[in-house]
Amino acid sequence: MIDAASVAPPEFAADALLLLIESGRVGDPEQRRELLDQAFQLAGYAQEDGPLSWYGAGPLSAAFHALAGARIDRVSLRVRVARALLTNDPKAALELYEQIELPLDAKSECEQPFTYNLAEYYAALAPLYKSITIPAEKEQFLLRRFATFRSSAQVEPFAAALLTLVSEPKSEPPALIYPFGGRLSKLDQDSRVFTYEFRYAIQTLKKLALASPAGPREYLVQQARAWVLQASRHGLCAQRPMQSMSMDGTISRQEPVAPAQLFNDELAPLIAAKPVIDIQNAGTEPPGPTFKRDSYSAEYLKFDQTRRLMGKAEAAEKEAAQWKTDIESYVTSITGWRNPSADDSDPAPYYLEKAELLRNALGIEQEPPPVKLPAKEHWSEYWQSRSKGARANYLGRDRILIALVDLFESSLAGSVYGKRRCVWFAPVRTLVRSPENSASLDDLLIGARHPVLHLYGLVARLQSAAGRKYW
């Protein structure tokens, strides 16, 4: 793996070294530290500065949602190095964490379909803070975090980190809440970031306010009010209704709510003054344009509907000759599907859609999924049971695996890779981490010509040898 990482692009090399360390297979402390230092340096050359929140309902949005968990951007990789050092060398972990620069200078326009997601960086704040034993150094650590607090993209993850600290038995909420609240009205004005991040920030701010004593809570709510008014008057981006697809394929529509109204509903009632915002005077400028949301193509939706219908067949039907004939015909259709677009300037949507169709065909279960879906708190158990369920038996499975690896190495995939490596990598990672992974797939990847496919075939084999199917 170390040899294979040496010829891979920097973000994949750093990720593989970190996965190797996280697997527990590197026993020598000196080698472990050497590999961590190497991963930290490699991370500085990652193509992506930070993980992205991509707003839409199509293949690109799904890819970037998955990539946020991949943590292969510059910020996330360096945070992972710091966290890997935390157990054995907290001082070194803190030193590296202090070197991480957040992508705060990039201004976004309303037309852009993404903002930076800084959750990984702030998730490390609480454990690093707790590792400091000298009170003055703890104070300085927090002061440096407040000094770099300047973007609306930081509000939700920073508030979540402070919520963890406020909940500690010996915490001092005023020392946490007052500096945080005081920065809210001084944040950079970025209509795109504020508009699309606020609906997430408001819920965490509410939890932080409820966990705080009366004085800090009142200050936090009043400062949040000033922040909302300032940002709204600066100008908001137009919001479209959000569409989401549930696990059973049901599409729901959520109408947008103005930030001022969200403040009135969620934060204003938490203090005695109830400082509601006059909605009529909250924003003096008309809303800016909205981004062009990506969506799945008509061809993809047609293929996907066929797959869903076939998946709902009972186990006995899936053993019948007719079902096996139908599934073979379906596999032939999706493996032979060609890009329907005459404009190949952006082949990424087609590439992602085809990879998803092929992987989903592998996931058709022998027993159809239950009609009644579980309550929200039981989703984890539901997916664990689904991942262990037997897959439908048909002859085209090996053909799909070969088609997937061929797709990842195709000239079309090369175009996607050349523009944005992480987009090309999204379906590769999803497949290797899925219940559809197998020794056959690992062998195909290891034997691939592409250095990244070869590397992650070795990663998957290492995980299997360690008794872990996912990482």
Mean pLDDT, to the nearest integer, reads 91
DSSP strand (E) fraction?
A: under 5%
The SSE string, one letter per element, is HHHEHHHEHHHHHHHEEHHHHHHHHHHH
Low-confidence stretches: none
Helix and strand composition category: mainly alpha
Rg from C-alpha positions? 24 Å
Give me the count of strands.
4
Largest β-sheet summary: 2 strands, antiparallel
Order of strands, main sheet, comes to: 1-2
Helix content: 55-70%
Number of domains: 3
End-to-end distance? 16 Å
Count of alpha and pi helical runs: 24
Principal-axes shape call: globular
Structure write-up:
By secondary structure, the chain is mostly helical. It has 24 helices and 4 strands. The strands form 2 sheets. It has a two-stranded antiparallel ribbon. The chain has a two-stranded antiparallel sheet with strand order 3-4. Strand 3 and strand 4 form a beta hairpin. Helix 20 packs parallel to helix 23 and helix 23 runs antiparallel to helix 24. The radius of gyration is 24 Å and the shape is globular.
Task: Give a brief outline of the structure.
The protein is an all-alpha fold. It folds into 3 domains: 1-101, no CATH class; 104-295, no CATH class; 298-465, no CATH class. It is built from 24 helices and 4 strands.
Features:
single chain; 471 residues; mainly alpha; two-stranded antiparallel ribbon; 24 helices; 4 strands
Which secondary structure elements does this structure contain, and how are they paired or packed?
Layout: H1 2-5, H2 10-22, H3 29-43, E1 52-54, H4 59-70, H5 74-86, H6 90-98, E2 114-116, H7 119-123, H8 125-131, H9 135-147, H10 155-166, H11 173-184, H12 191-210, H13 214-234, E3 242-245, E4 251-254, H14 259-266, H15 298-311, H16 315-318, H17 321-335, H18 348-362, H19 379-388, H20 397-408, H21 411-419, H22 421-433, H23 439-446, H24 451-465
Antiparallel strand pairs: 1-2, 3-4
